[in-house]
Amino acid sequence: MYLRTKDVKSQDFVGKEVTIRGWVHRLRKQKENAFVLVRDDRGGVIQCVFPAEKAAGLTIESSLEVAGTVSQDSRAPEGGFEIKGKTLKTFNIAPPDYPIGEYQSDELLLDKRHLTLRTRKMIAIAKIRSSVLHYGRRWFVENGWMEVTAPTIVKGAVEGGSTLFKLKYFDEEAYLSQSAQLYLEAMIFSLGPVWSLTPSFRAERSRTVRHLAEFSHLEAEAPWVTLEDILSTEEQLVSYIIQNTITERAEELEFLKRDVSDLKKVQPPFERMPYDKAIDTLRSRGFQVVQEDGSRRDIQFGDDLSIDSERELTKDADKPIFVVGYPIAVKPFYVKEDPERQGVGLTADMLAPRGFGEITSGGLREDDMASIVNRIKKEGLNPDAYDWYLDLRKYGSVPHGGFGLGIERLIRWITNVEDIKDTVLFPRTMSRVTP
Ligand code: ATP
Ligand code: MG
User: Fold this and answer.
1) Residues whose CB is less than 8 angstroms from the CB of residue 374 and which lie 6 or more positions away in sequence, other chains included
2) Which residues contact ligand 1 via a Cβ below 6 A?
């Protein structure tokens, strides 16, 4: 039986003999002794001390099994425990050209991502990511939502044609899914409140720190809900994920130097800011938008909120803000129009605080057949491409709604890493499909 370093670092093991397996993470050879920092298969590390000649052939990332006695020494890095090595067995001696060291360009770290995964930073992020997914799933299970999956090879656009990845599907053309929403909508008629976690694909041509070409999309949909029901679901879910993750991953967040005092405050309710007020606030601060011809004008009602405007709105906030009631013109065809305010959608985006910006988008869906056909046509889309979706409005249509949350956006906020690429183990962007 071999143990993990985390278990070995305990008073109970002092003086006892243990066996661990792992890789050489750092190596310091002195005249008499070699100090080998061994990383186990969960990223934990412990110093193992060997007589120099025994460790002579070791190199960084060689894989090994160490048996020895645990001792406590305040000089030992990473918690004051070490192993006085007795036997050393190697599985593989890595050549001495291991490319990941202390100082590398971001590009090299991305090119060698399969190896970068062994760095402490990536291990910390991977663990936080695992907690985010775990608590997300747990919240839905505890609250009676049913987990489903939807296809990722599809025929119709959800978020507009410009970010579709086309693919050859046998003898016809198909796309990679941008969102599972239309499929979740089909499921609520027999399965009630449902949720899914599927990859969504967007051919994002803009290089930003918050867009990936493939991201993990957590989506939910339920019948007979109001917009307020949706917002309340979202704020409970996000608060639950954050509170549990920062407790479980305190060590990893500290390693990433993430001050979690703001995150501790993330509890419902989140502010609901009407879109009109958001525009007024931005106008009062002289916020401008760049027009297609490059000229600038003051932001006005009808404009979508850009990354910059979201940053401006949230920079002083310590909790997320819902911006409620966007104009339907800047939202997809399925967004339900407010029956009391023409042109305004029953929709809201959740903006994460301190400038992070949009992490979810949700609201009610247009459930009336004539209205949705109109909207599809208005967007220049062909209603025939949505025939199955339109059946949902034909047979037993009900008021319904839901939301989509970008897991990587949430992780970026929780970890405070600069670039969304670092929230995912193998990022896909416009300029990167390998490794
Ligand atoms: P944005 O305006 O930032 O491009 P969007 O309006 O296109 O976002 P939606 O289509 O509403 O986003 O998707 C729902 C959620 O999915 C977003 O709130 C965001 O968290 C996430 N998301 C959307 N596009 C991406 C992307 N390219 N990379 C990572 N996450 C994304
Ligand atoms: Mg987008």
Assistant:
1) none
2) 159, 202, 204, 211-212, 215, 217, 358-361, 404-406, 408-409
164 DSSP 8-state letter: P
The closest ligand to the CA of 409 turns out to be 1
Closest C-alpha to ligand 1, atom 8: 358
Contact 186, 149 (CB under 8 A): no
Distance 330 CA to ligand 2 centre (A): 11
Ligand 2 center to 202 CA (angstroms): 8
Question: Considering every ligand atom, which ligand is closest to the CA of 305?
Answer: 1
**Contact status, residue 373 vs residue 390, Cβ threshold 8 Å:** yes
Pocket test for ligand 1, best of 200, 207, 309, 322 (most atoms within 8 A of CB): 200
| DSSP secondary structure string for all residues of 289-340 | EE-TTS-EEE--TTPPP-HHHHHHHHTT-SS-EEEE--BGGGS-TTBPBPTT
> Residue 144: left (phi > 0), alpha (psi -120 to 50), or beta?
left
Please give the helix or strand (H or E) that residue 109 lies within, else none.
helix 106-111
> What is the DSSP pairing of strand 347-352 with strand 357-364?
antiparallel
> For 9-49, how does the pLDDT look when each residue is reduced to its tens digit (9 = 90+)?
999 999 999 999 999 999 999 999 999 999 999 999 999 99
Helix (H, G, I), strand (E, B) or coil at 130: helix
Query: For the chain, which domains are there?
Result: 5-92 (2.40.50.140), 113-423 (3.30.930.10)
Q: Whose C-alpha lies nearest to ligand 1, atom 14?
A: 404
What is the model's pLDDT at position 162? 81
